[in-house]
Write a structure and sequence with these properties.
By secondary structure, this protein is α/β, with parallel strands linked by helices. It has a single domain, classed as 3-Layer(aba) Sandwich (Molybdenum Cofactor Biosythetic Enzyme, Chain A), CATH 3.40.980. The chain is built from seven helices and six strands; from the N terminus they run E-H-H-E-H-E-H-E-H-E-E-H-H. The protein has a six-stranded mixed β-sheet with strand order 2-1-3-6-5-4, sandwiched between helices. Helix 2 packs parallel to helix 6 and helix 5 packs across helix 6. The chain is globular and about 40 Å long. The two termini are about 20 Å apart.
Length: about 160
């Protein structure tokens, strides 16, 4: 049974959303998906530009200062030079979760061959689960659906770590 006092965070990684040039649709989509599955959870949200240091600073703060249980990021997982979310994750996580990454990738490929261009990165920092999704609201829904049934088990496992 997942603890009802969990805190989640949604981080949108997007230069354009950060500069308010476009509306963030994927972050709010993730919040709705989380609220549906975990109605009692507290959810934090913000947006940062596609900058390794800013991504790392926000995730580190949420983990180290706020004790957030789950962080879902949206954006920055593609192939463009500005897509740096996986690179930021390389220095953040204590453990990678390659099987979770594989599930996200393989389920995405069932929907679109373009999923092969995404670089989902998933891992654990301290007791926090961190999952990176692509930046579109459609991809966010598909990626969340791929792992949502596993979330309670993953969160329970992390809660029991001393």
């Amino acid at each position: 049974m997942v603890n009802s006092s969990l805190t989640f965070a949604v981080l949108t990684v997007s230069d354009r959303c950060y500069r308010k040039e476009t509306e963030d649709k994927s972050g709010p989509e993730l919040i709705q998906l989380l609220k549906k599955q975990f109605p009692d959870a507290h959810i934090l949200q913000t947006c940062v530009p596609d900058e390794v240091e800013e991504i790392q600073d926000k995730i580190s703060f949420w983990v180290d200062q706020n004790g957030v249980n789950l962080i879902l990021t949206s954006g920055g997982t593609g192939m463009s030079p500005r897509d740096v979310t996986p690179e930021a994750m390389n220095h953040l996580v204590d453990k990678r979760l390659p099987c979770v990454e594989h599930i996200i990738q393989s389920e995405g490929l069932k929907v679109t061959p373009l999923a092969m261009l995404s670089r989902p990165t998933c891992g654990i920092r301290k007791k926090t689960l961190i999952l990176n999704f692509p930046g579109s609201s459609k991809a966010v829904k598909e990626n969340f659906a791929a792992i949502s049934s596993y979330l309670p088990t993953m969160l329970n496992t992390l809660q029991t770590i001393k």
